[in-house]
Amino acid sequence: MDTDQVVSARREIDAGAEVIFEFIADPARQPEWDGNDNLAEAAPGQRVRAVGDVFTMRLTNGGLRDNHVVEFEEGRVLAWQPSDQGSPPAGHRWRWELEPLGPGRTAVTHTYDWTQLTDEGRFARARATTSDRLAASLERLAARVE
């Protein structure tokens, strides 16, 4: 695995895992805290509940992405692989892991993994997704839930 192709950020947030998870698992809430400034909107009613779910997001550039859920544990883990609408996933993955630290405190790890990405046209954008961008998402998320 190329460590340059897996970036992550971790932050402790003063909120319970169940509260934080609702902001992550509801695509309509994701543009509120997106540190990549890439997400424009998602239709309400797409709350993720299981592996195999697919939610659709409109990007700031106007494009539509289907997001295929590949990991799910309620209140703890959520990961998805984006694709152009109607196409198979492109090979990159967004992952969230929540670790309760006690009442009202949670460690949140946000990871972007593009080790399986094969479309060279997406490499520049993938390289631009740095741990600082992921940390920005965590900061924005914390500001919403704390």
From TrEMBL:
SUPFAM superfamilies: Bet v1-like. InterPro entries: Polyketide_cyclase/dehydratase, START-like_dom_sf. Pfam families: Polyketide_cyc2. This is SRPBCC family protein.
